[in-house]
Design goal:
Blueprint: E1 2-6, H1 11-22, E2 26-30, H2 39-53, E3 57-60, H3 67-73, E4 81-84, H4 93-96, H5 98-119, E5 123-127, H6 153-172, E6 176-181, E7 184-185, H7 194-204, E8 208-211, E9 217-218, E10 221-222, H8 223-234, E11 253-258, E12 264-265, H9 266-277, E13 283-286, H10 301-307, H11 315-330
Parallel strand pairs: 1-2, 1-4, 2-3, 4-5, 5-6, 6-11, 7-10, 8-13
Antiparallel strand pairs: 9-12
């Protein structure tokens, strides 16, 4: 298949693209290589994909929120399916630069829906987020839960993406699957995320910021488990049969949580990082941050039932793997 992957030089996009290339697909990767975090890291991922894919990987440095540029670049491109992972990420940054989220996550998502409709693609899988659950008190978070109270603009844009997708599934019978990712970590991860920040500071002997007095829980999901879920979804577009899909739609539109189905105490993850780094962390206790949530916990019953998804990597196994990669990447 010829698969278009947005955010191909991003963390999840890089790993998904590698897996698609490894099984023999051709991939057209899009990424604007913006400076939200290290451009060099994104370029290294892109170069790794080019080396792995050879002539089955094509990279286009463009912004999918720019409709004219997108249309021009893809005018003659063959696309069978789309994995739309590109977005402006980050809960806290959405408080500083909200317009970046409106442009990338709203306008950009609409552009990708229009592209999928115009090309008649067989399926588009897109990234949502566990952030849509906001301050929900019921645990674990299930795709059937209401998600009407986002705590950040980032979360609101991801909920809006789900709503736009439902509309396109209804009007144009476009097969769509939205994936609510839960705290993804692993090699080639993002420098703005907890695992990278804590590892960096522990190895440098600097204090690490611990919010809400350490009373925080996250469903940490290792990247290999995320990739397995994304590809399983890509290969199984929701049917246009009127039956209710995961998430409640009767259109060809499904919503799934992809998590580890374990809510880990952040202080326990810090202990694992200390063990893997070989040194103690200095904790700097801080209050809860605006837009943040105390606990995330994925109910994965729907994706397990429909697609056989079963995460295999615990934080006890995954944290050392990330630290090993971090040391190698930084030559520490």
């Amino acid at each position: 298949m010829r698969i278009l992957v947005t955010g191909a030089a991003g963390f999840i996009g890089y790993h998904v693209t590698l897996a698609l290339l490894a099984r023999g697909d051709s991939v057209l990767g899009i990424d604007n290589l913006n400076d939200y975090y290290s451009i060099a890291l994104k370029q290294a991922r892109r170069d790794g994909l080019a080396a792995a894919g050879g002539n089955r990987f094509t990279f286009l440095p463009l912004d999918f929120a720019d409709q004219a540029a997108l249309a021009s670049a893809l005018e003659h491109a063959e696309v069978d399916r789309i994995v739309h992972l590109g977005a402006q990420a980050g809960v806290r940054y959405s408080l500083e630069n909200p317009r970046a989220y409106a442009q990338s996550n709203l306008v950009g998502h609409l552009n990708m829906l229009e592209l999928a409709r115009e090309r008649g693609v067989a399926h588009m899988v897109y990234a949502s987020s566990s952030s849509v659950y906001g301050g929900n008190a019921k645990l674990p978070f299930a795709v059937e839960d209401r998600v009407d109270h986002p705590l950040s603009l980032y979360a609101a844009t991801k909920k809006a993406d789900e709503l736009m997708s439902e509309t396109y599934a209804h009007l144009f019978r476009l097969p769509l699957t939205g994936l609510r990712f839960f705290t993804v970590y692993g090699p080639w991860g993002r420098p703005d995320m907890m695992m990278w920040i804590f590892t960096s500071k522990i190895l440098a002997g600097e204090p690490i910021p611990v919010f809400n007095g350490g009373d925080m829980y996250r469903d940490f999901t290792y990247i290999d488990d995320i990739v397995a879920g994304v590809i399983a979804c890509l290969d199984h577009p929701p049917a246009d049969d009127g039956a209710e899909k995961a998430g409640g739609s009767t259109k060809p539109h499904a919503l799934y949580n992809i998590g580890n189905h374990r809510s880990e105490h952040v202080l326990e993850v810090i202990r694992l990082l200390e063990e893997a780094c070989g040194r103690k962390a200095e904790l700097e206790m801080k209050p809860m941050q605006p837009g943040d949530v105390q606990r995330t916990y994925a109910d994965i019953e729907a994706i397990s039932r429909d697609l056989g998804y079963a995460p295999t990597t615990s934080v006890q196994a995954g944290v050392p793997l990330f630290v090993d990669w971090y040391r190698q990447y930084h030559r520490l």
